[in-house]
Amino acid sequence: MTTSTSSTDFGRVENDGTVLVKMPDGSEKQVGQWAAGDPNDGLTFFIRKFHEIENEISLTLQRLKEGKGNAEAAFKLIERVKTNLENPTFVGDLSVLSTKVEELQVIAAVKKAEFSAAKAIAKEKAMEKRNQLVAEAENLINSKQWKVTTQRFKEIVEEWKKLPHGTKSEEQILWKRFSSARSAFDKTRRQYFSTLEAGRKEANKVKAEIVSQAKAIADSKDWSDTANKFRNLMVKWKAAPILDRKEEQKLWKDFKVAQDVFFAARTAALSVLDEEHTKNLEAKKLLAEKAEKILPITDMKSARQALKPIQEEWSKIGHVPRKDKDQIESRLKAVEEAIKNTEKNEINRTDPAKSARAQSTMQLLEVKLVKTEKEREAALAKGDNKKAETLAMTIESQKMLLDATKSALAELTR
Q1: Which helix or strand (DSSP H or E) is residue 32 part of?
Q2: What number of other Cβ atoms are within 10 A of residue 307's Cβ?
Q3: In sequence order, what are the residues at sequence separation of 6 or more whose Cβ sits closer than 8 angstroms to the Cβ of residue 107?
Q4: Which has the closest alpha carbon to 288: 392, 210, 194, 372?
C-alpha cells in the first residue's frame, strides 16, 4: 500500500493521486483520482467542492428563512446532496453536511406547507374575486351607459385572466355566467342602436319640420304668441331623438338663425315701446302722488270723490315699462286699499273677526314696508339712484297706508 502524501481531518490523497474521504462510521471511501499534477492540489480541489456544496446548502437555507427561496428547488438540492453523501465526490465533514441537509429538509417542508396554504388561500380569494366580477357583470346587463359598460366588460376579462386558477369546474360555471351576462348586454346594446338608427330617421323628419315652422314665423310681429311658439318648438326639438352629429348641427344652425331673427326683432321693437312707455310712467307717477295726498283719510265721502277722477285718468294712460309696472301700480292700489279698508272698518268696527283681519292686514303692510326698505338699501348699495328714488316714494306711500290701517284698526278696537 502506498504512503499518503497529504491529509486533513476529513480525508487524504495518496501519491498516485487517489483521493479518499473519511465516512461518518470511520471508514474511507474514494472520491476521485487526481492526475493533473501535485496530489495536494487534488485534495484541495475536492475540499473546495465540499465547501461549494456546503455554501449552496447554507445559501438555500438562508433564502428559505427569509421567504425568498423555492421549496421545490430546495428538495431537489437535498436529494442531490443525499446521493452525494452516500457516494461522496468531495472531501469534508460529512456529518456536518448531513446535519445541514436535515435542517434544510425541515425548513423546506415548512415552507412547502406554508406555500401550499398560501396557494390555497390565493385560490379561494381568486374564486371570491371571480364571483364578485360575475355579480358585477350581471348587474351591468341592463346598463344604458353603452361606452362605459362595454369598456368595463373588457376590464373584467383582463382582471379575470390575471387571477390565479381555482377549481376548474367552478371557474367554468362562473365564466359561463359572465359570458351570458356580457352577451345579454351586447344584445341589448345592438338592439338599442338599431332602434336609434330608425329613430334618427324619424328625428330627421321631425327636426326638419321644426326648422320649416321656425322659418315660417321668424318674421312675425306677434311678439308674445310667436315667442311661445318658439319655446314650444324648442321643447319638441329636445324631445326628438338625436341625429348624426353633422346633420344635427346643420339643422340646429338653421333653427337658431330663424329664432335669432325673431328675437332680435322683438327686442328692438320692445325697446321702442319701452321708450314710449317711459312717458306714461312719468304721468302715472304724478297721479300716484296726487292719490297719496288723499291719505290719511278723515272723510270717506271726500276721499272717494277725490280718487275717482284720478282712477279715470289713470285708465286712459297707456302701458308703462314692464320693469316699472308692478311698482307704479302698487302705489295707486295702496291708496285704493286704504280707502276700501277704512270703509270696511267703519262698517264693521264692532265685528271682532274683522278687527282680527285688520290686524293681519296691518302686519302684512309692516312686512311689505320692511321689504321695500331693504330693496331701497340694496339699490343705493349698487348705485342705482333712480330705482332708490322710486322705492323711496313707494315707502312713503306704504307708510301712509300703514298709518291709515293702524288708524282704522284703532277705530275697530276702540
Answers
A1: strand 28-33
A2: 19
A3: 61, 64, 65, 74
A4: 392
Per-residue pLDDT at 3: 39
- DSSP state letters, 259-317: HHHHHHHHHHHHHHHHHHHHHHHHHHHHHHHHHHTTPSPS-HHHHHHHHHHHHHHHHHS
Could you tell me which residues come within 8 angstroms of residue 142 by beta carbon, excluding any fewer than 6 positions away? 188
Looking at residue 329, its amino acid is: E
**pLDDT tens-digit profile of 262-320?**
888 888 877 777 777 888 888 888 988 988 888 888 888 888 898 899 889 888 888 88
CB atoms within 10 A of CB 314: 18
Classify residue 67 by its DSSP letter. Answer: T
Contact 359, 409 (CB under 8 A): yes
First to last CA, the chain: 152
Whether the pTM exceeds 0.85: the reply is no
Contacts of 178 (CB under 8 A, 6+ apart): 133, 134, 137, 156, 160
30 beta partners: 20
| Contact (Cβ atoms closer than 8 angstroms) between residue 101 and residue 82 | yes
Q: Which pLDDT band holds residue 328 (cuts at 50, 70, 90)? A: confident
Cell 290686524 sits on residue: 359
**Mean per-residue pLDDT, 394-404:** 86
Q: Which three cell numbers stand for residue 343?
A: 270703509
CA-to-CA separations, 120 to 115, 162, 174, in angstroms, rounded = 8, 16, 19
Render pLDDT for 216-228 as a digit per residue (tens, 0 to 9): 988 888 888 998 9
> Which amino acid is located at 292 in the chain?
E
pLDDT the model gives residue 2: 38
> What cell numbers appear for 378 in the block?
340694496
What is the domain partition of the chain in residue ranges? 4-118, 122-195, 197-269, 293-413
Q: What is the mean pLDDT of residues 317-329?
A: 85
What b-and-e string marks burial along 156-192, b requiring 16 or more CB atoms within 10 Å of the CB? Answer: beeebeebeebeeeebeebeebbeebbeebeebbeee
The amino acid occupying position 310 is: I
- Alpha-carbon distance of 250 to 62, in angstroms, equals 75
pLDDT at 4 over 60: no
